[in-house]
Every structure is written in C-alpha cells, then in structure tokens.
Amino acid sequence: MAMRLGFYTDYSGDIAKFAQDxxxxxxxxxxxxxxxxxxxxxxDERLKEIRTDLDNRGIEISALGYYPNYLAADDAEATEYKxxxxxxxxxxxxxxxxAVCTFAGMTPGLSVEDCMEPFTELYTEFTKEAEDLGIxxxxxxxxxLHHKNRTGENLAFSPEIWQAMFEAVPSPALGLEIDPSHxxxxxxxxxxxxxxxxxRIVHFHAKxxxxxxxxxxxxxxxxxxxxxxxxFGNGWWRFRAPGWGVIDWRRVITAxxxxxxxxxxxxxxxxxxxxxxxxxKIDSEADIVEMLGKEPNALVLGYRYLAPMMPLxxxxxxxx
Length: 320
What we know:
By secondary structure, this protein is an alpha/beta fold.
C-alpha cells in the first residue's frame, strides 16, 4: 500500500467533509480529554459513527494523538497523564487504529540521563500494554524546549537519545513519530535520521520550517533572551506548511519509500503565517490541534504542494 496524505485534527463531521473535499485520505485524530475522542467518555456507538463516516469518505485513521509530560514534576499531574494514556491505548485498540503518538516526557530541571531511569520504568509498562493490545507507540521528537529557562518536556529529541531509548526499552511496540521540522532547528540531518531509524518509524508528521539566518546570527541557538515568547519559535525560526520552508519533501518521501515505511504522511499545522487569528487563542499544547487542526488555509496549501509527490498505490498502476 502507498502512503496516504492527511493531517492531525480533532474529528468532526465538518472537518471530515473538508478533508474529503480537499483530497486528504488520512487523519491522525486528537484523543486529548477535550477532543471528540475523550477516551474516558466516548461510547462504542459514537466510535462506530465516526468510523463509518470516515470509511465512507475513504479516510484512514493513521494514529491517535495525545502529548502530555508523563515525567512532570507534579506527581498528581503525571499520574493523571499516565492513567489517561492507558485509556487512549485502549481506545486505539477499540477503534482498530494501529498507533498512539505521544511524548516520552522529561522532568524540567533534570538531565536526559537523569530521566532515563523513570522513562525506562514507565515505558516498559506502557509497551507491555501496547503489545497486549496489538498497537504501537510512536514517540514524537519535539523537544518542547522553553528557550528562556533552557528546560524541555520531551527527552526524545535526537537520534543519540532514540538509540538509548530503544536499548533501554527493546519492545517492538516502541517506535517514533518523526517530525523533520524539529530536527532542522536542532541542526540534525532529517534524511539520515529516516535512514538510520526507518524500521522504528510508526508515524510521520509533515511540517516545514523557516530559518532566519540573520536573526540566528544575532540571537544564537536559544533565541530571544528578552521580551515575551512569540508563537512556537524562538526568534529565528517558525513552523510552516509543507512547501513553505526549507525541507526537501521530495527527498523525504524518497527516504521514507527507501526504508519501506508503510504508514501515512499527516500534516501537523502549526504555521504562524497562515493562522494568525487562531494563534492568539492557543494557551496549551492541547489547544494547538483544537485551533490549528481545523484552520483550512495551511492545510489546503500543504496538500496542494505534497499531493503531486505522493507515490501511487500498486493498484493504481497501468496494466502491462
């Protein structure tokens, strides 16, 4: 089967119709508690309605998304995130969705090395449950870096760390959700990462990035030291729709094809240029998909750029 092109969003009938009308054939669906797929509350009847609607539109659910910090310093907060993630994994199994995508977590103020032991303990449990459910866990590579206090909330941001994670938790249920935009601003070769970890890629986010070399030359890697934070960047980079930044998407799709990736390519819309009004309403990680996953401009532009590059399914090839 060929890769499908989709986007990360919160399900609604309207967004499903938009996806079909645009030409999308894949969705990663939000499973945050405030989403349509609240894992504590959604009924089997409602799940059947959603699956029927998407099936009738030719749209495949590639993954469920839930991205908190399981290693948060607040024990009660971390405990609730862990409890709910287990419900999301169960929800994926109920929906026959192959993967749940999330973060590894990281305790602010602690080093990656310090966090490896609690990560290993937690993900040994998570992956055992995922194996029993017949699903995979895809850990996204966003560092969730707060550039002013130099702390992050997701330790899984580099290939060096991925290797350590897989050695610590060797379960086949543990994999990666790669987003090349994060690798770019960290100075990591996103194509080499695909080739080196191709057998671990569970899901792939299509997000581009602008780099302002002049500003980086003045600010340095960490970005603005003064003033309020603006958007998702740190003064010298910003996320863009695919085709509007520096990533070579033809080479990305070639690399994914080379390594035998059989999942989908889903746009994660965090483009600050094409969604200025929506950006002003984002206060938390969960708000991002709630606001931007329904904002059509960058999604349509990203689709128009990527669609001509998508490989055909073998069933679409001309007969000999």
